[in-house]
Amino acid sequence: MRSPRRLTRRQKWPLHLALFIIYVFIQLVTSSSSSTSAIPPNQTYTTTEKSISSSSPSREEINTQTVTTVEANKKYETTTRSERKTDSPTTMSPAKTTTSSGGSHHPTWRPPRENCTAPAIEQFPKPFMGKWGREHGGLIIHILAAIYTFLGLAIVCDDYFVASLDRICEELRLSPDVAGATFMAAGSSAPELATVIVGVFFAQDDIGVSGVIGSAVFNIMFVIAVCGLCTTTVSKLNWWPLCRDCFFYFISILVMLGTIYNKIISWPEALLMLITYVIYCVALSYNERLERWAKSYNIPFLPKDEEPAEQSALVSYRSLQEDRQSYTGPNSPVTEQIKSQDGIPAPGEQPNPQQPPPPPPASQPQYYKAKEADPNEVSPLERPVDASQWRLFTWHLVYPIHYTCRATMPDCRQPKWRSWYPFTFCVSMVWISFYSYIMVWMITIIGSTFGIPDTVMGLTFVAAGVSVPDALSSLAVIKEGLGDMAVSNAVGSNVFDILVCLGLPWFIQTAMIQPGSHVNVTSRGLTYSTVSLLSTVVFLVLATHMNGWKLDRRYGAVLMVWYLIFIVLATMYELNVFGEWNQPTCPSNY
């Protein structure tokens, strides 16, 4: 018989393998960032891209371009020498482009272009299809590819990433509320985090920031509006979880506004965002005490709640089977009603002396318990039997995603793979980063083809795509009649999106990869959008109070109208309708 010591080592080797993968990934990111940041002083800042037009430039145009390049080189060298004398941190780096010579791509450097913003499409590999081909029908391929990445993100997050986070919370013996605010929030907001990482380290533009802002508005307005429009019954909302999450969401917006106001993010500002989120997690760990303290004041304009608030409202779409069981369990409202009909007193009623008292209610588990695999669940790789044509089409559509996931990641919900959760966590992060990179790349190509700024694409399409897990979670719980959980899941995930999805990549870039550097926010319209986020919080609380703290279709219609107004105004600001807020995008032959 094997000794317990050998069994322990056997169970720990997947963790060691996962740590090794994380170390290699960090080394690759660090080496790539350091290589692109180092610029030799005698480097020629020219571009040797081939023109897509058949006509060659004239001699006068070549001479003009040469003079312009020489003047730009002299100006850049003068700026560099003055910065070295004053020892000031560099806040603007030359824009990196890729040149094609003989079919090979290699990086070259050029000085920052004045009076225009460098196009983000040049930070990615050159598209396989030219601009003329995209404008004449080829863009549909990029649109379908972007939609497919949304499906890939949703499947990887719900089926594998959240399952590995469940096991991590169980191994760390976290309480349910802290687990929901930390790891479960990371599971639902993983696409937003990966998008910001791509925007900071690869695209080097504001598409990640605009995606988080758009996702925040999408969650707090659009998702809750759809929940109200799709509900069949009126759900009563508990005021404490909504006011609690809205308060910390309001604080998060203020911290974000103070961070991006001067358009330069340094490591102390990024660290402040992470510390604020730690305070939020500590507050959730004392949720019961804070709730009793808040309700002891008897605030006149707030309703009197008879039921306790949810401890953790952040859920995933795949974990709702246990929520359904708890909703119809021995202490659920439906069961209490059945007990009352059978003669067993419900809470608040006088017991019948002729009947035995009911058993005491089950207490909430002290530690988080990971979800078990459903033995009756059908494998997504099996072809559905007696299915409709639409069902077969969707199965064939997502089959490559499921196949690659099953081939590269073990399902840590299964008993034989439960100790492999670190490996599943790392590989799922790789897949999320891959799908997010392709998504941002495709969205950037679409925006560049139509002439739409990257921030507008982030506020709309990227925000809707990365918010798919949160939307599915809220829609699924509202069908079970859990209005509090649906609303708090949408609001609570925004705190993680703003403080961690933005603060963590900014801190890694400015404190670890390039210590002392800065991350620039080029769009001035994002400051307006951030200020407008404050109005969404106030409007949500006021609309809920005016509607009697109920979730119904009228409530959903009002939020939907407010969401459309916000998106239209934010888009008009980014398009310089109300003034010159942003510089135009520089022309590009990508």
From TrEMBL:
* Compartments where found: Membrane
- Where would I find the Sodium/calcium exchanger membrane region domain in this sequence? 144-284, 421-571
Q: Give the compositionally biased regions (Pro residues).
A: 348-363
Where composition is biased (Basic and acidic residues), the residues are 72-87
Q: Does the keyword Hydrolase apply?
A: no
Task: Give the span(s) annotated as Disordered.
Answer: 33-115, 323-381
Question: Topologically, how does it sit relative to the membrane?
Answer: Multi-pass membrane protein
Question: Sorted alphabetically, which keywords does the UniProt record give?
Answer: Antiport, Calcium, Calcium transport, Ion transport, Membrane, Potassium, Potassium transport, Signal, Sodium, Sodium transport, Symport, Transmembrane, Transmembrane helix, Transport
Q: Which GO CC terms are listed, alphabetically?
A: plasma membrane
Amino acid composition bias (Polar residues), ranges on this chain:
38-50, 326-340
Q: Which residues cross the membrane?
A: 139-157, 178-203, 209-234, 246-264, 270-287, 423-450, 456-478, 490-513, 525-543, 555-573
NCBIfam families linked: calcium/sodium antiporter (TIGR00367)
Q: Which PANTHER family match?
A: SODIUM/POTASSIUM/CALCIUM EXCHANGER, SODIUM_POTASSIUM_CALCIUM EXCHANGER CG1090-RELATED
**Full protein name:** CG1090_2 protein
